[in-house]
Specification:
Elements lengths: L14 H13 L11 H8 L3 H13 L3 E4 L3 E4 L4 H22 L4 H18 L4 H18 L3 H20 L6 H16 L3 H17 L11 H6 L27 H4 L1
Antiparallel strand pairs: 1-2
Helix pairs in contact: 1-3, 1-6, 1-7, 2-3, 4-7, 4-9, 5-6, 5-8, 6-7, 6-8, 8-9
Length: about 260
């Protein structure tokens, strides 16, 4: 399991390091959906060539974390309603299946999981919201590692990053304390050897997180134009704040040094 906010020495960064830092920033909710990732800014931040930055971004694009526009550059993805549903379905299948097939954990793995839970609980009492978000998401990666499947652990890291973006985009109401408590229940079930209960608890946990999303109805792409061209005298609908309104404008490029 990667250390949180590990330091990188100048001129020793790799494309893997850059990609990992971007994923960690997403898991910590420091990079919002739609954030522009300028190659020049990233190369200055990591003190490396734009070629190396581009290699990292191409890898992340293949993993579904970022997207590129020929005219506007690289952006953190903004998952649609359908993509949100598919991401949670994928996590449910992977994580419950992993527990079902590899549910027996040894003492060393249980010790690692309990240590992670203690870190989550300490973060809940602290002021660092980013670390709290990171640890709650990283629990699922840690669990996959403890169940002996490194390949699925890496896959889950990407899916967890995507569902973190989804939670930010659609204003999840799921409580961090509740998430931690559900993690505790899963570990306790594994500790007593009740694989079936652990699987059910994981399915319920992922379902609770998904149910807490405020997806609402799909956005009408012609809403503003439809309202402007309505016949005179037609009552104007009241404005409501959408989750997507809280993401950075497409052309806004935040100072990445504060984010990464």
């Amino acid at each position: 399991m990667a250390r949180f906010w590990h330091a990188l020495l100048p001129n020793m960064v790799s494309a893997t390091d850059i990609a990992q830092r971007i994923v960690e920033a997403i898991l910590a909710q420091r990079l919002a959906p739609g954030t522009r990732l300028g190659e020049q800014n990233l190369s200055m931040l990591f003190d490396c060539s734009r070629t190396l930055v581009r290699e990292a971004l191409v890898r992340l694009a293949a993993r579904g974390i970022v997207t590129v526009s020929a005219r506007r550059g690289w952006y953190v993805v903004q998952p649609s309603h359908d993509e949100a549903r598919e991401a949670f379905e994928a996590r449910r299948v992977i994580e419950t299946g992993l527990i079902r097939s590899n549910g027996k954990v040894d003492k060393a793995a249980l010790k690692k999981l309990r240590q992670h839970i203690r870190q989550e609980q300490a973060a809940l009492n602290g002021a660092d919201v980013g670390q709290r978000s990171y640890l709650l998401g990283d629990f699922h990666v840690c669990l996959a590692e403890c169940l002996g499947n490194q390949l699925l652990a890496e896959t889950l890291r990407d899916f967890t990053a995507r569902t973190t973006l989804i939670a930010m985009l659609y204003q999840s109401t799921h409580d961090a304390v509740q998430s931690c408590a559900e993690h505790v229940q899963i570990v306790e079930a594994l500790e007593r050897g009740d694989v079936a209960a652990a699987e059910q608890l994981m399915a319920a946990h992922i379902g609770q997180v998904q149910a807490a999303l405020r997806l609402g109805a799909p956005t009408d792409p012609l809403a503003d134009l439809r309202e402007a061209l309505a016949p005179l005298g037609t009552p104007r609908p009241r404005k409501t704040t959408r989750a997507s309104d809280k993401t950075p404008p497409p052309d806004r490029e935040p100072y990445l040094g504060a984010l990464l």
